[in-house]
Amino acid sequence: MTESPGGSANVPSRDRRRFPGISSRSYEHPADRSALVALRKLSGFDTVFKTLSGLLPERSLRLLFLSDSVRVGEQQFAHLNDMLRDACYILDLEKVPPMYVNQDPQPNAMCIGLDEPIIVVTTGLVELLDEEEMRAVVGHEVGHALSGHAVYRTILLFLTNLAMKVAWIPLGNVAIMAIVTALREWFRKSELSADRAGLLVGQDLQASMRGLMKLAGGNHLHEMNVDAFLAQADEYESGGDLRDSVLKILNLLPRSHPFTTVRAAELKKWAASRDYQRIMDGHYPRRDEDKDTSVSDSFRDSAAHYADSVRNSKDPLMGLVRDIAGGAGDLGGKLRDTVFRGGGRPDGSGGTNGSNGTGGADRPEGS
């Protein structure tokens, strides 16, 4: 951070565009907004939310980080303090949230809190990323704070732990898991929004890409390539048959974050869009206009996004959805061909001429 010519304010240490009064609607993924609206309409959610808001040990959580982590400031992790103030300056977040560094070798960061958000980054993440990559991560978390995501993320964290504790009770965690599953669906979409906020703060797409690659493959950039990494996302989306499409869904359900290659591809696509360029040119929704927005508009935007996703998706399941929507004449034949793509066509005895598909193993959760 450097002092402004007038000496009254701090500004980013290098020239970056600032977005006065920017609304989180500017960068929020359409699926993020609609998933949150749908979550609020989930039966019983309001009751659970109101109850948990009074029960969650937020003060205890704050005291825990205060007592057992390092609070970022001018005297501790000063470079992170500069990044945090930069991010809040660029996104025009008036109150800078407290930030802590927690000893944990797992690279991770989070923005939590009910009354006021706090940001926590692990030592594993600090040691993994360079300055510009870390700047994008800090912007990512400030984006969560600006969007008001911290409240729901805190509840998800609490409910996930609670579900594990009551799992032994017959049907004890069924209701909890219904809400946890809905929260996770929203949580994954909110990560795509926050990735965009990180790009608006860092204003360096390559740094954002490098950071995501490191989360996937560790600190071995000399062994990795952005184009090859993005090609993995394309292969993941388009490869396989309907069985693989189902396995993708099953693999994703227990996760809190989207797959890293998918995040990279989504961010690169948004960076090349007209929406991103308009924001960079200073044309974006303002916070003081938020009260005039309607829920129906959010649903329309989300519906248009999902329709576009289905229309352009290379996934075999989405291809089948397009055929159904288009009234495919030979739907049975298309279904047969799609299911057995790459695995042989059914033979006369009812078997298949090819190897049998195998289920995918669960993969440990990433940051």
Q: What does this molecule look like?
A:
With 367 residues, the chain is mainly alpha-helical. Helices cover 57% and strands 5% of the residues. It has 16 helices and six strands. A four-stranded mixed sheet has the order 3-4-6-5, sandwiched between helices. Strands 1-2 form a two-stranded antiparallel ribbon. A hairpin with a 5-residue loop joins strand 5 and strand 6. Helix 1 packs antiparallel against helix 8, helix 6 packs across helix 8 and helix 15 packs antiparallel against helix 16. 30% of the residues are buried. The N terminus and C terminus are likely disordered.
Fill in the keyword field for this structure:
two-stranded antiparallel ribbon; 16 helices; disordered N terminus; mainly alpha; globular; 367 residues; four-stranded mixed sheet
